[in-house]
Amino acid sequence: MAGKNWALFEEDFWALNDALYALVESSYSKSAMLIDCDGHLIANVGESPSFDTDSFASLSAADLAASKALASMLGENDFRNQAHQGREWGMYQCSVNENVLLVLLFDRRTTLGLVRLKAEKAAVELGKIFTRIYGKLDSSQGELQSVGVGADFASEADQQIDRLFGDSPNP
Amino acid sequence: MAIHPIRRVSLVNYPSREINCKIVYYGPGLGGKTTNLRQVYTAVPSNHRGTLVSLTTRGDRTLFFDFLPVDAGCIGGFRVRFHLYTVPGQIYYSPNRKLVLRGADGVVFVADSQKERFEAGVESLRDLYVNLVENQTGRIPLVFQYNKRDAASALSVRELEDSFNPGHLPYFEAVACEGKGVPETLRAICKLVARTIQ
Fold this sequence. Notes:
The complex is a heterodimer of chains A (171) and B (198). Chain A has helices at 10-27, 53-73, 112-139, 153-164, and strands spanning 7-8, 31-36, 41-46, 81-85, 90-97, 100-106.
């Protein structure tokens, strides 16, 4: 999948969400996120974080990318997981596949051991869902040549972008 | 597999009607990439942008990347977000640049107009093309920004164009520290990226 495109459809979205909900409940975590290797947030369940999730996703992806690069320097294919623990919050992340990262946020209600155990099992299940998604996209390549945004998308985008990004000061 | 044969749309989330696009500011060290993002952060209304994240050295040089999410609002029924990244420009951060460039939907090449920084710009552009090929990025929109136009040793735009942009892609003159040329550049790359979404 590296360097390839993909989209998320209704059925897959809910399958991923259900798996994440089950994981949050069974591990007593605060929230669970799926993030793609380019730093985009795919799904987020559990308590709504008070921070900027886009920034969080980009940093998590960078964190994983850096650790993969370090693993490669040591002759390892990958470091399978990472954990960070502070006084109140903990964060556990592991790869679902080469393109998707699972991140769990937890507090003192649970332990890193339990979170890791449940996350590793869930990652396998999530991996199966993504395999299904990729297979679906592969088999329907022709139908998915278009995002389906409509004919006016480009002109509407132009107007919106003009509105948002004004001119330079003192042009 | 793919959604589009020429370019990638990083993620189209149909249930939440979201499209996320990644734009990377590339170029030599101290050329003004981070300054561009800081200016964008200042210029864009707070309800349309997230947190500006900078992973820097103690000397305030970019170590890994800067990141700023910009929400363009609802376009064609989709919420469109542009994720703006910079890469570290210094030569020895090559692995970091390659990682940040991965999955880019568009690139802004920020060249330093100063004569003494010309070679660094050429080297950086070469590095960009190598990394795009190695990342199997395919064809994506690219625009040039010639920054520091107010510098005493600035080369002429024609000299810069001949060297950096023989293919005559869009270019913009800028004095990023004053905000000049920053929105024009961003508008251009965002529009080009948006036009490739079909």
